[in-house]
Each structure stands twice: as C-alpha cells, then as structure tokens.
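To close the chapter, one final illustration. This time we ask the reader to focus less on the individual chains and more on the assembly as a whole: which components sit near each other, and how the overall shape emerges from the parts.
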Amino acid sequence: MTAKSLFEKVWDAHVVEPEGADKPAVIYIDLHLVHEVTSPQAFSELDARGLKVRRPDRTFATLDHSIPTLRPDADGNRPYVTAQAKTQVETLEANAAKNGVRLFGYDAENRGVVHVIGPEMGLTQPGFTVVCGDSHTSTHGAFGCIAFGIGTSEVGHVLATQCLAQRKPKTMRINITGKLQPGVTGKDVALTVIATLGFSGGTGYALEYAGPVIEALDMEGRMTVCNLSIEAGARCGMIAPDQKTVEWLRGRQYVPQGAAFDEAAKGWLSLASDAGAVFDKEITIDGSAIEPMATWGTSPDQGAAIAKGVPMPQGEDDERALKYMNFTGGEKREAEKVDVVFIGSCTNGRMADLRAAAAIMKGRKVAEGVRALIVPGSEWVRVEAEKEGLHEIFLEAGAEWRLPGCSMCIAMNGDFVLPGQLAVSTSNRNFEGRQGPGSRTVLASPATAAASAIAGHVADPRQFMALEEA
Amino acid sequence: MSNQEPVNTFSSRIVVLPEANIDTDQIIPARFLTTTTKAGLGKVAFNDWRYNADGSNKPHILNTIDPTEHRVLVGGNNFGCGSSREHAPWALMDYGFKAVISTEIADIFKSNCLKNGLLPIVVDKAVHDKLLANPQQRVSIDLESNSLTLEDGTVITFQIEAFARQCLLEGVDAMGWLLKRLPDIEQFEKTNGKAA
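The assembled structure is written out below.
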C-alpha cells in the first residue's frame, strides 16, 4: 500500500467525486461552524433558491464577532456598538431558528469564539473535514482535521449541499526538532514558523506540523500553532492525533461515549502520516533555539525574538512597516511603551492561555497608563477561570475581565485600540488598523502580553518567571 | 452568486496600489462587516486609506479617479492576504473593479473573487514591473484566450482554475453544479456512515 500523509488520509476519505483536469473534487464536509458575520448573505442565497440547510445536524452556530463583551444593563439590554451589529446577531438567530440549526446564543452555556467552542464541546473530532466562514478555522487541524476557512458563497454551498468543490492543495511538513526552552510557548513556535516561511510561504499548501516539539505541546498549544497557519498563507494546518488528543477529547459532550469512544480513538490514532509518506515540501526548524517572540511590523511574519530587539529594516516593506509602527529599527524592546494589552481570541483565549497570563500577573499590578483587557474565549473558559479564581488575579492586577467574544482582535464590537496606541495582543493579526484605525499591534504569547502589561513595555516574560523561581 | 453575468473581454485603464501584502483589513476594515447584505460596500473599500477619522477625503488615488474608467486594480505582491471575508471582493466590485493583478494572490481571497466574477490575475515580476512603471496605462483582458495585453503590446497568458474559468465564461452557477450532485452526495453519506 502506498504510504499516505495525514492530509491524504483525511482528504481521500471525503472525496465524493474525484478531481479532474476540468473540474475540482467534490469534498464532503463533516462539520460546518457558522457565525453572525459571514453567514447572513449565505442564508439569503438559500432563501432566494427556496432551499433549507441540508444537514442542520452537522451545522452549529455561535455569536462571537459582533457581540459586546460588556455585560447587559439591568434591563437586559446589551451594549451593541451599532444598531446594525444587533441586527446582524438577530439575523443569525432568525436564520438558525428557521433552519433548525443549533445556535449557541446568549442563553447557552457553551457560547464563545467559534474555534474555541468547537473543540471544547467535542464537535471537532479527528479525521473530520471542518469549515467555517473564518480564516482561522485551521485551528481545528490540531485534532487531525482538514479544517479551513471559506468565503460566504462557499458557506452557502455547504449549507445547501454539505459539500464543497475544491482542488487538492500541495502538502508541506514542518518538522520542529529539539525541546522548547522554559518560558517558550506554542505562540512563540507559531510566530517562528511564520517568520521562517514568510507571509505567503504557505500559500497553496496544507501544512502538517510534526516533530518532538509539536508532540510535547499540550492541545491548547497545538491549537495556537494550527490557528496561525493562515498567517503564512496556508488555508489549513494539521497535527497527527496521538494519545494526548484522545484523552483531551474523552468525555466531551459531542464525542462518542464509553466503548464507542475507544473504538473511534483507534481510528483516530491510525491517521498519522505513514513512514515514507511524501510531501511536496519539507522544512525543519530547530525548536531548541526558539525564544519568546514578538512582532515588530504590520504583518505576522515580521517577528523576532524579544531579546534581539527590533531588527534593522531589510528593504521597502520593512521600512514601511517600521514607519507605521513608529519604530526606526535597532531599538530595544524596553523602549516600546505599551498602551493596551489584549489577552484573548481564537488564537490564545483558552484556559491554558489564561493560566499562563495569571501566573505572571499574580500579586503584581498592571503598569500605570496601561489598559489590560482579558477576554475569555468561551463561556466555559469564563466559568472555569472564575472557579480557579483567575479573574480575581486579573482584577486585582488592574485588568478588565470581560464576557467571551472576538473583541479587540478584530475590533468590530466596540472594543478597540485608539489611534497611535501600541497594543501587545495575543491575537493573530498586526495589520495596519486591525485593532482600530491607527492602532499599532505587537503580537505575542499570553505570558509575554501579561509581562508587558506589568512592565509597561514589551517584555520577555522569563524575567518574571526567574523572579518566581528565586 | 446565483445569476452570474458571464465575464469575457474588456479593456480599461489600471490603478496601481504598489504596497506589498495588501490585506483584507485594508480592503475593507472589519468594523464595516456588520452588514447583512452585499450591497453598497464600494464606498468603504480601502476606507482608512481614503478617509480621515472625521470622514473627510484623504488625497488618495481611489478618491481622485473615475472608477468607471479604471476597472483593473494592480496591487503589490501577495494581494488579499488575511481573512476569509467575501466582503473584500464585494467591496472592490462595488467600487468598480473587474480584475485584480498581482505577483501573488492569497488563496481564500482568490477563491472568493472567482465566485463573484472579479478576475484574480497572477503575473510574474517582469510584467508586474511594467505595470508599475506605467501606472496610467490601458490594458486588455480576454478570459476566452486567458490573455492580458499591456499598452506596449506585451501579451501575457494567465492561468485561471479551469472550472472557475468555465463558470465565469458561461455563467455556470457553482451552487447549482453542486446541487446536481445531491444523489451522489446522499450515496456517499450512506456508504460512509454519515447519513442523518
């Protein structure tokens, strides 16, 4: 039998009609996640054709992008940024009800950021194809899924047929060797991978992350790594399921239960790339050399080890990015005074992320003049964090503790960074104006973001960890 | 889109935005994504490049040209990177563009363009340099022959994925194409234990 990669195994199992020179493959979609922003026009298209959602049992919706993260007032009114945002949420509520689609709305204990709740509830299962009208759908690849973002037209295709017309991408394996140093996280691995590949180095590829560093990461770290695949241009990034994946999923709401779970797990564990599987491209990164990272420019590949400071520009793109960021190149990170710290998002809004931030913030204060916003990725994360008392650590440090949502990552719900302000964010994009018009974003791990909130400048988190060990 | 207008041949002046990595947040900032329709997004295309915070115009080329005369956008390398928002091609088309040219065009954006009839054309650096060197020029695009003709007479053959090209040329509706396969899809579900 031909040796197959993880990607090929999952792809081949979902081909309804094979690809030809003049036509793409028809690929079956196991799980379709829907949110309020990229779905209304797709539902309208179904309405115009007199169609209903074909498989509501494979379609799940949540509210995350446009919703306020502030609590409702005494009368239950939510502080929407605009009337249009409220209309958008109500449109999804109506579309879900009309089509029998399960919506995790305000009353649900599982509402949250789409890529946080999918795995959390066990909707995401190894070997699945997962799509969503959101480019960070690659997150679910951490469970050995082919998971990728689609546009609204394709959201309509999946709602109507549970299938997509797709060309098979090329494959690239990224081997990360060695062992991470203490204080280095999945986010630092991801930012290193993106800096290595470049902003478009993954375009046209499905990535597989492999090697001892990936095996040693917890599931949250793996999700962070897969989440950021799109920031190197790859629609999809995946990791082979292992025993850690199986144990993480065991007992979750939507996975098979009891003996059926163990039976399913056997299949999941057979998905790993065969020895001898061939990839269109393979690269190796020395994981032992990775240090806490922070971006310095306006694309996620413009990142460097914090200890190395801001690099000198190499060409026009760098110069333009540095100018926007109000850096010159060559400065130390201590020179970067921070105005805002945002901890949350589909990249880093999970329990492990909040615990890492809390470990740094515990017993310390957010520096004067810094606004720190902590936004749990889901209601489940919020409740768990409150049970552990993490919210008290954040509040005592002087940070804000919000309700779940995408919040300041995409800055469309009223949470935003003011013009000219510098934000250290655990999110995924540092594009010009991403966090609000004129905002300047430094991407980093939750530990680095927390350390920067305390220090008041972009800070290597290990200085606070060393203090704790002493 | 359900009633796709066939796309084939047209000629137009270009507009050059030479910056590399023009991402979807530049093309349409996220705060304009609370809409529930596709209409009218051209006025917020490149909003933060075109307008000051008070809504007044910046001296940006997209505020000075006549969009009906400039249907081809030439962007820097890696155009359309970032999010999956189809609002990006909707905004560009509503502004007036019919084609986008770059040395590299991001995957999801490209797929979204093709679904809406906005032609994503990838050219090599030499051709890109010629477009940037003469940003006033008129070009011709012929999808039937997959050719782009520059003002100096240079003719380039570009690639558009075969099925998407057929959809554009013949006005084939991609959702309809999938709907025709429902019997096969049902069979696949039964065979693979995925039936409802």
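The beta strands of chain B are 9-17, 70-75, 99-102, 119-122, 138-142, 147-149, 155-157. The first strand of chain B starts at residue 9 and ends at 17. With these observations in hand, you are ready for the problems at the end of the chapter.
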